[in-house]
Amino acid sequence: MSNATFMDRVLAGEVLDLREIDDEIARWHRGSSTATLHESLGLTWQEYQLFVERPEVLPLLAQARKYGLSIVTLVGEQQPNMALAARGASPQELVELRRWLKATGRL
Predict the structure, then answer these.
(1) How far is CA 25 from CA 14, 29, 73, 97, 99, in A?
(2) Within a 10 A sphere around the Cβ of 29, how many other Cβ atoms?
(3) How far is 61 from 83, CA to CA, in rounded Å?
(4) CA-CA distance, 37 to 45, in Å (whole number)?
(5) Do residues 97 and 54 lie in contact, with contact meaning Cβ atoms separated by under 8 Å?
(6) What distances in angstroms separate CA 23 from CA 6, 30, 36, 85, one per listed residue?
(7) φ/ψ (deg, to 5) at 17
(8) What is the CA radius of gyration of the chain?
(9) Cβ atoms of 6 and 15 closer than 8 Å
(10) Which end of the chain is more exposed for a tag (fewer CB within 10 A), N or C?
(11) Residue 82's pLDDT is what?
């Protein structure tokens, strides 16, 4: 098994179903890794916190990473349709996520 993290494999196109993260988390719990779960998944602490609170944000985390942006920068953009709707996030979902990020002091 390679040392590539879950997010590395997502960005490389090796993981197409993001629900596979559940299997990855289960493997981490069964294993003996010295890496933290968020490190093992390839998420920053901020990304991991967002994922734990709102798992549906995972596709946007991958999208942000693809463009070299933080999720806060990506969602905070004034152009919310920035190819995101095609990636599984509707404009309404982006508005809701932006509202939530503001309410939690992240944006």
Answers:
(1) 17, 6, 27, 24, 28
(2) 9
(3) 14
(4) 10
(5) yes
(6) 10, 11, 16, 26
(7) -110, 105
(8) 14
(9) yes
(10) N
(11) 54
Tokens of 29: 């719990």
Q: Which of 50, 97, 46 is nearest to 75 (CA)?
A: 97
Farthest CA pair distance, the chain: 43
| Residue 12 identity | A
Locate 38 and state its tokens: 């968020």
Q: What tokens does 81 get?
A: 């349709």
- The closest alpha carbon to 95, from 60, 55, 53, belongs to 60
Task: Output the pTM of the full model.
Answer: 0.80
Q: Which of 20, 1, 5, 106 is nearest to 65 (CA)?
A: 5
Question: Is residue 36 a contact partner of residue 61, using CB atoms and an 8 Å limit?
Answer: no
Given this model, what pLDDT does residue 81 score?
53
